[in-house]
């Protein structure tokens, strides 16, 4: 049990959240372009 608490204590959640949101933003760009192309260019 001490190992699990130590593992979560060493994780830097701020860095994990920042990387998660950056990856979501990077994924959202091509999705918006794909939707624009699918709808013929007019949102």
From TrEMBL:
Biological process, per Gene Ontology: photosynthesis
UniProt keyword Thylakoid, yes or no: yes
Membrane topology summary: Single-pass membrane protein
Membrane-spanning segments: 15-38
Keyword Membrane: yes
Compartmental location: Cellular thylakoid membrane; Membrane
GO cellular component: photosystem II; plasma membrane-derived thylakoid membrane
Keywords: Membrane, Photosynthesis, Photosystem II, Thylakoid, Transmembrane, Transmembrane helix
Subunit relationships: PSII is composed of 1 copy each of membrane proteins PsbA, PsbB, PsbC, PsbD, PsbE, PsbF, PsbH, PsbI, PsbJ, PsbK, PsbL, PsbM, PsbT, PsbX, PsbY, PsbZ, Psb30/Ycf12, peripheral proteins PsbO, CyanoQ (PsbQ), PsbU, PsbV and a large number of cofactors. It forms dimeric complexes.
Family from the record: Belongs to the Psb30/Ycf12 family.
Purpose of the protein: A core subunit of photosystem II (PSII), probably helps stabilize the reaction center.
This protein's name: Photosystem II reaction center protein Psb30
Provenance organism: Planktothricoides sp. SpSt-374
Chain's gene name: psb30
């Amino acid at each position: 049990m001490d190992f699990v608490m130590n593992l979560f204590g060493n994780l830097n959640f701020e860095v994990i959240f920042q990387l998660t949101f950056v990856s979501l933003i990077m994924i959202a760009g091509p999705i918006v372009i794909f939707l624009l192309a699918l709808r013929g260019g007019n949102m």
